[in-house]
Amino acid sequence: MSSEDSAPTAPRGPASLLPWYAAMAALAVAFIACYVFFVRTRLGQWIDNAALLGGQAFLAADATRKPALTFLDYMPAFSAVLSAAVLLWALIRRRDFMRPVIAGLSILGASGTTQLLKHVVLERPDLNISGATVNSFPSGHTTFAAAAMMSIFMVSPAARRPMVALGGWTYAAIAGASTLVLGWHRPGDVVAAYLVAAFWALLAGLVLRHLHGPLEPGNSAGHSGSGRAAKILTWCASAGTVAFTAGLVVALLLPHPRIGDVSAPVLLVFLGSGLALILGSAFLIGNAVLRLFSRYGAPIRFKPDLGMK
Description:
This protein is mainly alpha-helical. The longest helix is centred in the N-terminal third of the chain and has 33 residues, at 62-94.
């Protein structure tokens, strides 16, 4: 194992796997709560649609929508090519077939789960809010963006993961915000997509932990850029927690008249609340995933019989 792939020792024994199961259970509970509130209740649907109407009212100009549309047009192909290139690099460099394959399967699992949930399992009742009964929960574009970035995160050297996590979740946050700007998805759809992608990333990490065991003892100076990236991501997660909480509280406290009677200034506030939910949840979830992998993840294996050191 090279020094760049060394990381602090993770706890050993069955108890060290409990954080993985607890984190996955927490993500599942959060997803269910998100669905029940934003899709099954009148208040949740109202808040979601007010944010969507705010985007249409204030971000409908071509100058705003064109960059978002361009980004989302190229995003699936870019994400797929980038992820495939990095996974192939990891396979060739380390001669480790298992980790890139598991990382790649996590993308398929997350995307497939979103499509199954959206089109088969979950329903969107008509609660006389928007009249839309076609379920859009969770967002497919956002799921794919986040899952692709998480696959790159999983095959990255431990010392570089903070930088990858910061860049990857920033990318996923922009993808989610763009779907709101274009009126494709509501904030609840995007938050749910992050939860699905994170769940599959943790499932892949747990499988690798079972296969490879805990991180080996060793000290690594790492990269100064990674230390800064970890601090920035932690700061973003803290700010995101505040933004997420404030956005939800404001959305709950403001009056909720008939959706068509909401004034423009109030729609702007709900748009801000929706963006706060999206951006806040992205960095909060991203930081949690990074911390779990850093503390309890499996080491990256090299094949010494093939000349790798």
